[in-house]
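Practice set, problem 2.
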Amino acid sequence: MNPVETNPIRVRNRVVYQLTPGRIVAWVLLAVLIFITLFPLWIVIKTAITHPKELFEQATLLFPSDPTLLNFRRALGMVSLEENLAVGGVANINFLTAMRNSVLFTLTIVVSQTFFSAMAAYAFARLRFPGRDLIFFLFLAATMIPGAVLFIPNFILVKNLGWLNTFQGMVAPFVLMTPFAVFFLRQFFLAVPKELEEAAYLDGASPFYVFWRIILPISKTPLVTLAILTTINTWNEFFWPWIVSKDNNMQVLTVALKMFQSQTPQGSPDWTGLMAATFLAIIPVFILLVVLGRQVVESLQFSGLK
C-alpha cells in the first residue's frame, strides 16, 4: 500500500490510520487553534490566583510564584471591607448574591421559554387552523427585527406596570417563545411519525395530552439542546437587566461585573478581583458545554440548522 494514502488499515481487528503529511498539518493547526482558544482563559485564571500587589511584578510569568485564593474570597464577599481595601481592592460587591440572581433569572427563563416554545412549535407543526402558515411566516419574519429596537417599548411597558427593580420586570421580555426556538422545535416535530399521535387520538386523547405525554417525552434531545442554548444566552444577558434593575440586591452577575469594573481606584481596575469574578461566571456555562456540547451539535445537525 502506498505510504501516503489516508485509507485506514485493519490490524488485529483495530483500525489504524496512516500518518500522512496532510494529517500532521491538520493536527498542528488544530493544536494552534486550541491554544489560541484556551490561552485567554488561562490568563484569566492566572490573574485570578495572583495576589493583587504582585500582579504587575509577575505579569510576564505564566504561573504566579505564590498562588492565592484571596481574590475568590473577595469576589464572594468573604473578606471585610478593610481587608479588601488594604490589598488595593474596591468597595465590596457581593458576587454570591449576583450569582444567585443569575441562576434564578436563567432557570426561570429557560424553563418557561422552552415550554412555551414547544407548545407553539407543536401547534405550527401539527394543528390545523386558518392562517397557520401565514402566522408562522410572520413569526419567523420577526427574527429580522433587531433586538435593540424592542428595548424602548419593553422598558415603557415594564415601567407602566410598576415592575422596575423587580424580578418579574427582568424576566418579562424573555419568558415566552422566541422565533428561533419555535422554528428549531418545529423542525423536529415535523419528523415525528403521525401514527403515534393518531393512535392516541383513537383512544380518546386530547391534543394537549398527546403533546404532554407523547411528543415531549420523545423530544428530550432537542428540548435539552434548546435549553442549553437558551441558558448560555440568558446567562450572558447584560443590557436588559442593567437598565431595569438598579438595585444592588437585584443585579445579575454580568451587571455586577460591570459595576465592579467601573469602581476604579486611581483609574486602575481591580484586575485580580475582576478576573476571579469573571472565572466564577464562566464555570457554569463551561461545565454545561463540556458535559452536553456533543448533544447540542448532533441535535443541530439533525434539525438541519447550520
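Problem 2, part (b): a different protein.
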Amino acid sequence: MTSRAIRNLATFTLQDGGGVPLVLLHGFPLDHRMWVACAEHLPPGIRAIGVDLPGAGHSDLDGFPPSIEHIADAVYRTMTEAGEGNAIIVGHSMGGYVALALAERHPGFVAGLGLVDTKSTADTEEARAKRLRIAAAVDASQTVDAVLGMPANLVGATSTEHRRNLFPLLDSWIRAQSPAGVAWSQRAMAARPDRTAVLERLDAPVAVVVGAEDTITPLAEAEHMVRAAGSPAGPAMGDAALTLVPGTGHMSVVEDPQAVAAALGLLHTHVVAHH
C-alpha cells in the first residue's frame, strides 16, 4: 500500500482582518472566484479566506479516491498548517457538503458554520446515478462539455431575466475547470452520506442561507437543516438562523452577494459572542 500525503490547497485572502476567519468553500463546478464579490461586501475587519477544493481552480488532485471526507481533511490540514486554530466554515452547495464533513471530523476547529444553497441530506439514487453518468461523460470526452449547461439551472428566474451578465461569468469559470477535477468531484458528491445528525450535535452557531428561487437545494432543504441545528430562539444568540434571499436561485452568492455577505457578517458576530 502506498502512502499518500494530503496536499495543501490553494488559498486566497479575499478580505484582510483579524480574529476568527471565514473560510469560504465554493460549489461545483466552480472555484474560489465565486466568493470574491461577496467578500467585498463583508463588514470591514472580518478576515475572509477563499479555498480552491481539490481538482478545482489552482488546487490539483492528489491521487486520493473521490470523497467529500478527503476534501474536508485537506481543508482542515491546509488551515491548521497556516496557523489557524479555528474558523467559521462557510460552504456553498458542494462546499456545504464539505463544511458538514469538516464539522463531523474536526468539530473543535469549527467555530461556526455557514451553509449556503446546500443540503445535509444524501443524494437520491436517481441523483447519484446522474452524477456518475456525468463523471463518465467528462472522462470520456476529456472536456467539461457535460456541465456547460449548468448555469441555466444554477441561477434563479429573476437573474435569468435581469442579470444576464452572470451567464458569461459562470460559463468562463466552468470552462476553466479541469475535466479530471469535475469528474472526481461528481463521484465524491455521489458517495456522500446524510449528515443531518452533524447539525444536531454541533455546538456552534449555524447560519443557513438559501435563494428563494433555488430549485437545486430548495427552501425545504434549508428548513430541514435549521430544524436539525436548533430553533432560532436557541441559547447561542440563535443557534440556527435562516436567511431567505429574494430574487436569487442556487447561486445567491453571486446573484446577490450583498445579501449573503450581510448574513455571514451576522454569523461572524454570533460566533464572536458565542466564544
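Answer key, part (b): Confidence is low (pLDDT under 50) at residues 231-238. The longest helix spans residues 257-274.
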